[in-house]
Amino acid sequence: MKSKRKLMYGLLPILFAGGIGMYLYMQSNKAPEPKPEVVVEQYIDHLQKKEFDQLYGLMTPASLEASGMNREQFAEKYNAIYSGMQVSAVKAELKPQPVAETPQDGGTTSGKKTEGTEGPEQDPNTYKAEYTLRLTTFLGEVNETQSLNLVKQELDDGGKVWRIEWQPSMILSDMVKGSKVRVRTLLPERGDIVDRDGLPLATKGTALEWGIVPSKLGDAPDQMIASIAQHYNVSEDAINKAINQSWVKPDYFVPIAMTDDERIPAALKGVQIQTKEIRQYPLGEAAAHLIGYVRKVTREDLEKDAEGYYRAEDWIGKAGLEQSLEKQLRGERGGVIEITDENGNMRSEVLRKDAVNGQNIQLTIRTKTQKELYKTLSSGGDAGAMVMMDPTKGDLLALASAPSYDPNKMVTGLTQAEWDAYSSNEQLPFVNRFTNRYAPGSTFKAVTAAAGLMEKVTTPDKSHDIAGLQWRKDASWGGYYVTRVKNVSPVNMVDALVYSDNIYFAMEALEMGSERFIDGIRKFGFGGNFGLDELYLKPSQYANENNKELKSEVLLADTAYGQGEMLMSPIHLATAFTPFVNEGKMVKPVLISGKETSAPEVVITPEAANTVKDALGEVVSRSGGTAHSLSTLPTKLAAKTGTAELKAKKGERGQENGFFVVFDTEQPSFLLAAVIENVNGRGGSHHVVDKLKPFLEKWNG
Fold this sequence. Notes:
The protein is α+β, with helices and mostly antiparallel strands. The protein is built from 22 helices and 25 strands. It has three domains: 124 residues, NTF2-like, domain 1 (Nuclear Transport Factor 2, Chain: A), CATH 3.10.450; 72 residues, CATH 3.30.1390.30; 318 residues, Beta-lactamase. It is 30% helix and 21% strand. Strands 6, 7, 8, 9 and 14 form a five-stranded mixed β-sheet that branches. A five-stranded antiparallel β-sheet has the order 16-15-25-24-23, with helices on both faces. A four-stranded antiparallel β-sheet has the order 1-2-3-4, with helices on one face. A hairpin with a 6-residue loop joins strand 24 and strand 25.
C-alpha cells in the first residue's frame, strides 16, 4: 500500500506538468481572436477603391438576405448610384474610436465607460465605428458621417468572425429600404446677343418639329414610313434609325426634322408636329458671319472638350460670335442629387448646384444699319465686305460679308439641295470677308502720304514730273514698271491722292527708304488685332517675313500704293483712316459694349492729319477725283478709292478687287470701308462707289 501511495505521489508532479503542457499547447494553437478594426479597415479600403463586390463579402448574411440582393446586384446598385452622381473620387476616414478594453472572456468591446460618464458596458459581441465619407461628384462634394455596426458571428467550424450589418444608409445616410438616388441636370439658358439698342441678334425662338409615334403607324408600318419619307423628303433609313433608338417606346414621340408646315396630310398615320424651342437669328443672312450659329455637338466636339463639359444632347457655337464667345454664352449647367422613395417622390436633397445662365452680350452693332449695309453689299450677287464704324468712339456699327448663308437653316437643318447650293457656290458663302485680309490697293496711299509728311519727305505741294503711264527707277529694275491710270504732270501729293497716282507714292517711298517708310506706316495698327479676339481677327502685314523689312526697292515701291506683300482686313483699313478724322489719333474698333479697350493712340500730328483729310476731301469735291460722283450728296465727304490686282503670274491679268473708304468731314458720325471682289471690267473701284452712293444718300446717322 505504501509503495502504491509513493507511486501515486510520484506520478502527480508528472501528470500536473503534462496537463500544464497540454493546456499551453492547446492555447498556443488556438485561433487568434478576430478584431473588428480589421474588417473596418478592409471596408474603408474597398470603398475608396470602389470595389463594391468586395464589400459584399464583409456583410452579415442576414442583412444581405433582408436587402434582397445577391453579390452582382449589390455591386450593380453601388455602381449605378456612383455612376449617376459621376463620383470621381471617394475618401473615407475613420473617426477616433473610444478607448477599448478587453473583457475577461477575451471578447472585444468598444465604447468603454470613461471617467465622468455613466452607462453600461457595450456588448462584447458588437462593435460600432464611425467614419467621414467624402464623395467628389460632378456637382461638388458630398460630405457625410457614416456609421458601421458590426457583430461577431460563429462560423460552421467553430471559429468567429466580425461582419457588418448592411443597411441602405451606408450608401447615402438618408437612404432607407426602397430608396433610390435620382440625378437631375439643371440646364442654363443660353445668353442672348443683342445690338446697341437691345434688339436681338441671337435669341430664343420656336420652330415646328415633325416626328413619329411608332404605335400609330398602322397595320403596314413599313409602307407608311415609305409614304412619310417621300412627303417630308427624308430617307426611310433615317426614319428607321430614329425610331429604333434604344430609348424609344411604342407610344413615344420620336423627333425627325423641322418643318415650316403645321398641316399633316390625312393619309399619313403616326406623324405628329410639336413646337420646339430653338436658337433664332432675326437678321438671318445679314449678320450670319458676325453672329454665327449653334449646332448639336459632334463626336469631334466631345473629343476636343478638355474640361468634359459637353454631353451628346448639348448645343455648341460653331461659327462667329456664337463660337468665339461660347463659354460666356452657354453658362454653366447645374444639377440636383436627390433621394426618392420607391414611388419616385423626393425624400431629401443630397446636393444641389444651380445652373448659371449664360451672359447676354451687347454689341455696338446697329440692326438697321447692318441690314441696310448687307442689302447694299449683296445686291447684284457681289462678293465682298463692308465695315461701318463710328470714327470718334470706335464703335463698329455694321460688319457685312457677302455672299452669306442662313444661320437659322443651320440650326433647323439644311435639306440636301440647300447644302449642295452652298457647297457648290464658287463665291464661298461661308467665308467671312470682313475679317479676311486683302491687298488694300490705292486706299493705302493715304497712310503713305501721312508717313511721308511725318518723315518730312512729303509736303502737300511737293511735285514730281512724271511722263507717261509707267515708270521705273532705273535699269536695275529690269522689265518691272510702276503704272498709273491718269497721265498728269507735274503731280503733287494732293493730285496724287485725287487721281490715285501709283508712281508719285512709289517715288516718295523710295526717297524715304525702307526703314523710315516702315516706321511711318507701322504705327497705323500693323502687328496687332485691336483686341478683337472674338472675331478671330488676324494682324495685318506689310511684308511676308514677320513685318520686319521690305527687301527690295520694287517691293518698297509696290507697298507704298497698297500692293506687294501687304494684307489688311477691311476692319483694319477702316481703323487706319480714323487718325484723319481725329486730329492724328487712331481710335481702336470696339464690338462688344462695355469691353475695356485701349485709349486712342496719337500716330501723326494734327497738322499731318488735317493735310491728308483735306486732300481726301478733294477726291470727292474736285472734278476728275475718283469719288467725285459723291459730290452731289448733302454731306461733305472725304474718300479714297483703290483697285488691287491679284496676279497669278507676272505679265498676266489677275483678279481685281475694288476698295473704297469714305467719311463725313463735318459731322464725323461714320467711317465706311468696303471691298468688292472681281470688279474686272465693271469699273474697278468706281463700281464700289456707285454701289454705295444710294446707301450714303439715305444715311442719317
